[in-house]
């Protein structure tokens, strides 16, 4: 079924057409959402919201416009909203950091993981040298705050503060990078 026929069928409330639409685009939509959100649950929610919006707003579909453009515009806007929502940013950052901790270059098979890892590395590279060192030691999981402080001749409070600021800076840089890639 081509896009025009599919759109017409959707507008008429045909559930089979909706199933075809979902089967055709859901995997691609999920991969795109996960690429920018780095979070399985948020990506799944974004895709679910996408298809709910398509079904509830099906009367507004225009059969003269490519259906995939409409789908991915709606998805892009949802992803941007999720990235702009501060309560979700911590989940995105946590999952991106988890990805960074568990993946080294030899294990990166998936193009999405590689792009996410590159985005995280670019954000880490923009940290000051001291913050980058504290951050690297901390996420390695091998050092306590006290051990990092001793190693770098800093106070424990400085280590805690610099790590906290590093997380904020990385979160913001990842958010900006993801948003700029979507726009």
Characterize the structure shown:
- The protein is mainly α.
- The protein has 2 domains: 3-84, Rna Polymerase Sigma Factor, Chain: A, CATH 1.10.1740.10; 87-182, Arc Repressor Mutant, subunit A, CATH 1.10.10.10.
- The chain is 79% helix and 0% strand.
- The protein is built from 9 helices and no strands.
- Helix 2 (15-37) crosses helix 4 (67-84).
- The chain starts with a helix and ends with a helix.
- Residues 103-109 have low confidence and may be disordered.
Write the layout of secondary structure elements.
Layout: H1 3-11, H2 15-37, H3 40-56, H4 67-84, H5 86-102, H6 111-125, H7 129-139, H8 145-152, H9 156-182
List its traits.
9 helices; Rna Polymerase Sigma Factor, Chain: A; mainly alpha; rod-shaped; about 80% helix; Arc Repressor Mutant, subunit A
């Amino acid at each position: 079924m081509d896009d025009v026929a599919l759109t017409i069928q959707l507008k008429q409330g045909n559930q089979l057409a909706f199933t075809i639409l979902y089967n055709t685009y859901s995997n691609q939509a999920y991969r795109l959402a996960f690429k920018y959100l780095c979070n399985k649950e948020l990506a799944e929610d974004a895709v679910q919201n996408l298809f709910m919006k398509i079904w509830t707003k099906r009367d507004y579909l225009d059969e003269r416009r490519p259906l995939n453009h409409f789908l991915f515009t709606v998805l892009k806007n949802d992803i941007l909203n999720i990235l702009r929502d501060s309560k979700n940013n911590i989940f995105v950052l946590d999952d991106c950091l988890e990805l960074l901790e568990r993946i080294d270059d030899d294990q990166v098979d998936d193009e999405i993981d590689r792009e996410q890892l590159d985005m995280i590395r670019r954000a880490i590279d923009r940290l000051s040298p001291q913050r980058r060192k504290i951050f690297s030691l901390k996420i390695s999981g091998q050092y306590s705050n006290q051990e990092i402080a001793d190693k770098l001749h800093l106070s424990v409070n400085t280590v805690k503060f610099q790590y906290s600021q590093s997380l904020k800076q990385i979160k913001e840089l990842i958010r900006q990078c993801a948003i700029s890639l979507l726009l």
